[in-house]
Amino acid sequence: MRRLRARTPSDTNPVDLVSSIGSVTLPNPVMTASGTAGHGDELGRYLDLGALGAMVVKSLAAEPWAGNPAPRVHETAAGMINSVGLAGPGVEAWVADELPVLLSAGARVVASIWGRTVDDYERAASMLAGVSGIIAVEVNLSCPNLGASHQIFAHDPVAAAEAIAATRTCGRPLWAKLSPNTDRLVSVAESVIQAGAEAVTLVNTVMGMVIDTEARWPLLGGGGGGVSGPAIHPVAVRAVYDCRSALPDVPIIGVGGVGSGRDAVELMMAGADAIQVGTASFADPRSAERVLDELDRWCRSHGVAAVRDLRAAAHEHGATNE
Length: 322
Description:
Order of helices and strands: EEEEEEHHEHEHEHEEEEEHEHEHH
Helix content: 25-40%
Oligomer: single chain
CATH superfamily: Aldolase class I
Structural class: alpha/beta
Strand content: 15-25%
């Protein structure tokens, strides 16, 4: 039985925060979540982008996309709901205008791409081939802002696998971002790994809606949207736990309602190799850096010498810090 490596009281060595996601090695496991940190260095005025494990940028289509009509964002009781609709400048403009700024800030950059068809995904991925400075590509198969649930690639193992196979043209490690809005999550995760993804990102937002009771109509301009924030954290933990149980060797990035170091620890104990901070950044743009600091302090206070030792600890009955 593997046990968490512990410090002795006299051990003053720093916590080993190095984290691996397949072939990608990061200095620490804390990243931004796609869609919450913009396409460029917007957070750079608040924190050191190079201090994070990586910056995952807002999802990009092959061409510019205007997104959904306003209003696009609304606060909920335990987070927010959005129907931004994947608005973005397109891959070509992002590579020319935003990527250089991110790289000059010292960020390790993960590009995120989306599409409505397999051909859309292939075009976006092909446009990233040969572009320097991108350490991985996260393939967003799961945004609920595109319409009905049957239109989301991540709800169908076959469709998800086809999209991943098409994006291999980018020549980068692929991370498949999956949806919690399906009872086939594990099957989809298996299919995208078989199709060429190195890792899965769990999870995207939960489908929801807010009604304007005065207007008697959906409040968001796009109708329904995606719920994020603390309300979905237990959903993310369960998704990570289930996929880790079924796929013990597959790299997993956990995301959903992470607002503290303890939230990060919980996802890693469920089975995540790394985590992403999303909605918390809207309330506090320094959230990702704070989560990293809190994760480091939690490990110190609990005698954890290496953050990777937290991975899947909740699956090991009797695991201790001895």
